[in-house]
Amino acid sequence: LSECMSNDRMREQLAFLAEIDALKTIVRQSPLADRSRRENSAEHSWHLAMFALVFADDATVDTARVIQMLLVHDIVEIDAGDTPIHGDHDRQAVAAREEAAADRLFGILPEDQAANLLALWQEFEAAQTPEARFAKALDRLQPLLLNTLTGGGTWAENGVSEADVLARYGPTIERGSTALWRHARTLVERHFADAGVDRG
Amino acid sequence: LSECMSNDRMREQLAFLAEIDALKTIVRQSPLADRSRRENSAEHSWHLAMFALVFADDATVDTARVIQMLLVHDIVEIDAGDTPIHGDHDRQAVAAREEAAADRLFGILPEDQAANLLALWQEFEAAQTPEARFAKALDRLQPLLLNTLTGGGTWAENGVSEADVLARYGPTIERGSTALWRHARTLVERHFADAGVDRG
Ligand SMILES: [Ca+2]
Fold it and tell me: Which of A17, A145, A183 minimises the CB distance to B51?
């Protein structure tokens, strides 16, 4: 224990933990369930980790790795900002900004931990492993749930149709878990049926 | 996969995940590092999970279990409210309120998961296992760090002396990790030396 926790090492670790406090100030588009304000990326990350604790437990993925991935997945937003799902973005420019952010932020940590967290974030972004696909699915499912709980949330704000929702959320959730998408799809269909709004 | 993810099960899981969104509205005493507002218990739980990802990795504890414990440790506050460290409380009344909250909130989940998360929360509260002691240490270290980053934070607000800080934070942190307390203690000493305030 004492060997792995030198003063220099702890200084770097605490500097990183102080720096990422800023994730609490990155405001997303999603409303809280009680509609009192918009969600920030730190509490969003906690909520997603709880989604993983509950749903990954039932799936054939490494729950601990899914949780760790979701805890770090938005840290790059401290430098690069949040990129809302409903909107046009220069994907390459966003990716370049996020990579620079990952290098700077994880780079505050001791070298071995910087490499580990960078690899975890890159695995999430690449969406190739079962754990990354499951994590990506939860990252789409959570705002979907908040929107259905708040009379439409960002869908209502942005005039997003049922067809748009199925197209923007479906593939990512289904790639992570067909069971989750089957269930989420009924939430979406029920929402648009109840709302009596544009079904696209 | 399909067997473990029935519709009824997922309905209960989503009801729980919708209910715990309310942890984002439980405001704690601690300031954010940028002093823009006070911290809420959901983002606090994310921050603590990151502390565990960084520090438990170096310690002889099960990192995944420490993280899971910290993700759920404050969920009872949705019903029972936050109990600030600096203040007088009827410990038995607080414990009774929190136990009722744990029963109700975790009880929304399917029975097996309700039992697992209740056990995880009880392990944290009992502070007997190495993982629970480490988690408790981080739950004290994180507000200590925020206070030193913000010119005193809740210590300055409540006229808390250096002796009070050493007495209220030291034993819990040291029980989880002597290395962490050795380092945290120097942060406290430096803070009070720099502040030139009451050393108690
Ligand atoms: Ca996200």
Answer: A17
Helix (H) or strand (E) holding B135: helix B130-149
Burial class (CB in 10 A: 0-12, 13-18, 19+), B27: middle
Q: What is the pLDDT of residues A159-173, one digit of tens each?
A: 999 999 999 999 999
pLDDT given at position A87:
79
Residue of A nearest to B17 (CA): A51
Q: Is residue B2 part of a domain?
A: no
Q: Taking residues A132-161, what's their average pLDDT?
A: 96
Number of domains, chain A? 1
- Domain assignment present for A2: no
pLDDT band at B93 (very low <50, low <70, confident <90, very high): very high
| B126 CA distance to ligand 1 middle (Å) | 33
Q: Is the ipTM of this complex over 0.90?
A: yes
Instruction: Please give the share of chain A, as a percent, with pLDDT higher than 90.
Output: 86
In a domain, A200, yes or no: no
Task: Say how far apart CA A69 and CA A82 lie, in whole Å.
Answer: 17
Residues whose CB falls within 8 Å of the CB of residue B93, separated by 6 or more in sequence, listed in order: none
Tokens of B200: 């108690």
Give the whole-angstrom CA distance, residue A198 versus residue B141: 50
Cβ pair B149, B33 in contact under 8 A: yes
Please name the residues in contact with B69: beta carbons below 8 A apart, sequence gap of 6 or more: B120, B121, B123, B124, B131, B132, B135
pLDDT of residue A13: 98
Residues B198, B200: Cα–Cα separation, whole Å: 5
> What gap in Å lies between CA A35 and CA B78, rounded to an integer?
16
User: Which residues on chain A are in Cβ contact (under 8 Å) with B11?
Assistant: 183
Instruction: Please list every residue in chain B whose beta carbon sits closer than 8 Å to the beta carbon of residue A111.
Output: none
CATH number for the domain spanning B135: value is 1.10.3210.10
Q: Categorize the per-residue pLDDT at A1 as very low, low, confident or very high, splitting at 50, 70 and 90.
A: very low
pLDDT given at position B2? 46
Over pLDDT 70: what percentage of chain B?
96
Residue B1 lies in a domain: no
Range of the domain at A22: 7-195
